Structure to design on (346 residues):
């Protein structure tokens, strides 16, 4: 229970279905910077109180677990990815390591059969567990769940996954839950002011060194304050004027160089993913499959051929070039509503 509307309604639905429900809040130990809103992220002190009040109203036990040390490793991963010139996806890592990792350990410790969350996704269980998109396409969160394995999905419930967001909010109002009108959390929970560069300056000030902006032809056109402060596809906030629109098309962490180019320079027709997790069925090596592939959460998805490779990798070849494929992001494979699997873009 994060203190938000989705996990609160999930607990409500499970309670109404007759389950014995235990509410759990994950404390991440994040201290909000002065002036930052603690209400738009998640896992703040205010969120903990909201979750506890909902649990009290539903008459279920409630526990706040201290995951500060484990969560600190996610923040370290986030900073480390930028430092190596990649674009991190901390929500996927948090799901893998905490919500469907450490939380399962706690479930085992108290004898809980299932773990339920407020994610907009669905699980179908027959001989194998199959992960599907959430019924509300605008809120679908299946992209963030691609690392989940069979033993986890077999014990996972997504009570609001088959609902529209408007239905969830209406149900919260009808039940008199205080979170019914609570705004959604939009930012990364440990970057509540949405300024990840501030976090980098705090965490790795000695690593942020002046470097060169270069064009795709190698011409030096300006200076920057550290490659870590930029992402693939970025156009705004570059601090350099070329007299034409310029985009970050490549980042070389070793030389601390940021490469600028035109929008067309962002297009790529293929990628290789590592640490690929096939959820319900793994194709044989060399057997390419047709899939829709998303290269970031807000990507519409694109037709592609996905070929499993040795070492837990996969090659993705798109039917048409895609814009701003970023190392460190996740490539997630779909067939219709089913999530086939996914991996990390190299």
């Amino acid at each position: 229970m994060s203190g938000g509307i989705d996990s609160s309604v999930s607990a409500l639905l499970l309670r109404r279905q007759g389950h014995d429900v235990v509410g759990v809040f994950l404390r991440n130990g994040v201290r909000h910077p002065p002036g930052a809103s603690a209400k738009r992220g998640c896992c703040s002190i205010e969120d903990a109180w909201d979750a506890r009040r909902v649990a009290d109203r539903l008459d279920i036990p409630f526990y706040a677990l201290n995951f500060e040390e484990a969560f600190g490793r996610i923040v370290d991963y986030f900073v480390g990815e930028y430092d190596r010139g990649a674009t991190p996806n901390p929500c996927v890592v948090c799901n893998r390591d905490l919500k469907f990792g450490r939380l399962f350990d706690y479930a085992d410790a108290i004898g809980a059969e299932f773990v339920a969350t407020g994610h907009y996704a669905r699980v179908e269980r027959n001989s194998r567990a199959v992960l599907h998109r959430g019924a509300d396409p605008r809120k679908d969160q299946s992209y963030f769940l691609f690392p989940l394995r069979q033993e986890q999905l077999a014990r996972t419930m997504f009570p609001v996954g088959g609902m529209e967001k408007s239905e969830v909010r209406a149900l919260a109002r009808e039940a008199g839950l205080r979170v019914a009108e609570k705004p959604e959390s939009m930012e990364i929970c440990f970057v509540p002011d949405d300024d990840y560069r501030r976090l980098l300056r705090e965490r790795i000030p000695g690593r942020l060194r002046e470097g060169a902006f270069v064009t795709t032809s190698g011409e030096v056109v300006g200076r920057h304050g550290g490659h870590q402060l930029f992402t693939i596809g970025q156009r705004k906030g570059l601090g350099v004027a070329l007299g034409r629109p310029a985009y970050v098309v490549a980042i070389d962490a070793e030389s601390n160089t940021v490469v600028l180019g035109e929008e067309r320079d962002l297009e790529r027709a293929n990628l290789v993913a590592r640490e690929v997790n096939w959820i319900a069925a793994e194709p044989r090596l060399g057997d390419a499959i047709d899939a829709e592939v998303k290269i970031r959460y807000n990507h519409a998805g694109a037709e592609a051929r996905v070929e499993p490779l040795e070492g837990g990798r996969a090659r993705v070849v798109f039917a048409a070039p895609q814009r701003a494929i970023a190392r460190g992001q996740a490539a997630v494979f779909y067939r219709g509503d089913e999530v086939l699997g996914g991996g990390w873009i190299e």
